[in-house]
Amino acid sequence: MRLVFIGLVAGVFSSLFGVGGGIVIVPLLIGFAGLAAKEATAASLGAIAITALAGVVLYAAHGKVDLAYAALVGVPAMAGALAGSAVQRRLSGRAVTIGFALLLAAIGVRLLVA
């Protein structure tokens, strides 16, 4: 049931704020579902693919998807995802967790002072 709740929360935040699901899903999977950092990352990526597909279909139905912008962001993001996956395989789970926590803290500070 925790995983269903995590999915629901991630979907709401993704739709409301356009945030990457990983920012929401990974901490919830680690903190509330007890997954290790690497497992949480992999599960998050799978969930994001499903969420993104649903979102893009709904936005496209209303004519809100600009394929040029999507490609300009999506293609480099895909390359970054491949690079990030390669780097993550070489890191310990603890290093991944610390790096993610630092990223979230930096984003939080930036949002508060912006």
TrEMBL record:
PANTHER family: MEMBRANE TRANSPORTER PROTEIN MJ0441-RELATED (PTHR43701), MEMBRANE TRANSPORTER PROTEIN YJNA-RELATED (PTHR43701:SF2)
Subcellular location per the Swiss-Prot or TrEMBL entry: Cell membrane; Membrane
Keywords per UniProt: Cell membrane, Membrane, Transmembrane, Transmembrane helix
Similarity remark: Belongs to the 4-toluene sulfonate uptake permease (TSUP) (TC 2.A.102) family.
Keyword Ubl conjugation on entry: no
GO CC terms of this entry: plasma membrane
UniProt membrane topology term: Multi-pass membrane protein
Transmembrane spans: 6-30, 42-61, 67-87, 94-113
Gene source species: Gaiella occulta
Keyword Transmembrane attached: yes
Superkingdom as given in the UniProt entry: Bacteria
Protein name (Swiss-Prot/TrEMBL): Probable membrane transporter protein
Chief location of this protein within or outside the cell: membrane
